[in-house]
Specification:
heterodimer; A: mainly alpha; two-stranded antiparallel ribbon; 77% helix; 1% strand; B: mainly alpha
Chain lengths: 277, 211
């Protein structure tokens, strides 16, 4: 039957004028897109109304709530990177990390501040009221910064002054306040320390990548040493370039993470199916 | 040029030409969070404007006191001043929280989730830091030199954020209705959209920074 059907449909296509074929193809494409979009919207709406998360997100949540030290570190560094998936610390990243040296200073500061603040949040601040907790995180980070920064300032005055207003802003970013509030204050000190190291490593990885790329594109140099004679684009040190770069990097990370989750999900499904059989 | 004209020019520069959100990425984290909750947009913008005004004024006062009392040795380190600004922000937050909790419990309940986000963000601390930085160089005799200048600076920063938030919420509503590729769904699309808007603003301001 299918053999009989095929030639007739081919004939029909051949007999159809080219413009009608094009029109039909366009119509079909648009119809497909509209159907897919409406199905997506309906599913989103249903999920939102019933407070149900899609399957992939459920799986994601399970992974995120696995509180072994290794998982906590991996989540901070890769799977739940604070910059690429949660937009924490973006102000400092975009404003200050346009050379490798600046990115390194910012990364080291973030690690020090996060480690101490999260440890204190886990050990001491967890019993405070909400307003007092929030203020405690910010105040701890600010005091620490005021203690750590002057010696570095004395040693590398031009580097620290080139960071401008962005160095003090580290202590008030969501990277510290939100991680302390959502993770450190409800977990043990060991896990809080692992989270601080993981999150600050994740931040540092993105910051260093940004520093290297922006420095090379804007001035053809690496760590202050000129390594090429090509054309330079000084606008790479401006905010819009960093936003666009962050968008593309975040999209790449999201794509990789979704592929990884799907692969893990199919592996689990296969394993469960195999058991049943 | 009279002081009034200078203040107006400065305010226009802060709001439109060199919006602190698009040119310096101040407050990006909170803007991205508030975009997901359009209901809180107006509430958040108004609180943020009040906070930027208060933080600019207290920043100016702290700066004035440091200079007058001669504590310039430690305060010359940027972080020394920033610690004072952070303490001022914290005191403001605790005071506002306590007063509203006693005086208007219903209103306090309605803003209790927005208040910490509006106070502890990079825009609220960035405003006094930027004001201090501008004082000795570019705007000598302008915003940092008198209290009115600090007030206008704070209002302009707050209104600039309101303008940026308005652009963002409307744009994101349009973008989320589109059929985006899987990879760009959510945060990446927001970053790219902010980047394109920042590019347009950079085109208005030019390579040379006004602030």
């Amino acid at each position: 039957m299918s053999k009989k059907m095929l030639p007739s449909s081919k004939k029909q296509k051949k007999s159809m004028p080219a413009f009608r074929r094009r029109l039909r193809r366009t119509f079909d494409n648009q119809l497909d897109r509209a159907i897919v979009q409406s199905a997506k919207n309906t599913m989103r709406g249903l999920a939102r109304t019933a407070n149900i998360k899609p399957e992939e997100e459920n799986f994601y949540d399970e992974r995120m709530h696995d509180t072994s030290a290794k998982n906590v570190f991996r989540n901070g560094l890769l799977l739940n990177n604070p910059v690429l998936f949660n937009a924490f610390g973006v102000t400092v990243l975009i404003g200050a990390c346009d050379t490798l040296a600046k990115a390194l200073v910012i990364s080291c500061m973030t690690l020090a501040l996060m480690l101490v603040t999260e440890l204190l949040a886990s050990l001491v601040y967890k019993d405070f009221d909400t307003p007092m907790r929030m203020t405690a995180y910010v105040l701890t980070a600010a005091v620490l910064l005021a203690l750590i920064a002057p010696p570095i300032f004395n040693r590398y005055p031009s580097l620290v002054s080139s960071l401008g207003i962005y160095l003090p802003l580290i202590c008030i970013t969501g990277l510290i306040t939100v991680r302390c509030e959502t993770f450190a204050s409800v977990n043990t000190a060991g896990l809080a320390a692992m989270d601080a190291i993981g999150c600050s490593s994740g931040f540092a990885a993105v910051a260093i990548l940004f520093g290297v790329l922006r420095e090379f594109i804007s001035s053809n140099s690496f760590a202050g040493i000129v390594i090429g004679q090509g054309r330079t684009f000084p606008a790479a040190s401006m905010a819009f370039f960093a936003f666009l770069m962050l968008g593309l990097l975040s999209a790449l990370a999201q794509r990789i993470r979704r592929l990884w989750f799907r692969r893990r999900q199919s592996e689990i499904n296969d394993a469960v199916g195999g058991d049943k059989l | 040029m009279s002081d009034f004209t200078r203040f107006i020019t400065m305010a226009i520069a802060i709001i439109f030409a060199e919006n602190l959100f698009f040119s310096r990425a101040l407050g990006t984290e909170v803007v991205i969070r508030i975009m997901a909750r359009p209901r809180d947009f107006l509430k958040f913008s108004l609180i943020l404007t009040i906070v930027t005004v208060l933080s600019s004024v207290t920043g100016w006062m702290i700066d004035f006191a440091i200079t007058a009392l001669g504590f310039t040795v430690y305060a010359s380190y940027y972080v020394g001043k920033s610690l004072a600004y952070v303490i001022a922000l914290i005191l403001m937050y605790l005071l506002a929280d306590a007063i509203l909790h006693r005086a208007a419990p219903a209103f306090h309940r309605s803003i209790s989730k927005v208040l910490p986000i509006a106070v502890f963000n990079t825009a609220a601390l960035g405003a006094p830091l930027l004001l201090t930085r501008l004082r000795p160089t570019l705007l000598t005799g302008l915003p940092g030199s008198n209290l009115l200048g600090a007030v206008i600076f704070g209002v302009a920063v707050g209104v600039g954020f309101m303008f940026a938030l308005l652009l963002m919420t409307e744009g994101i509503r349009q973008i989320e209705a589109m059929d985006l590729p899987d990879a760009f769904d959510g945060l990446p699309a927001r970053f790219v959209y902010i980047g394109l808007l920042a590019l347009a603003f950079a085109g208005v301001a030019g390579r040379q920074t006004l602030l």
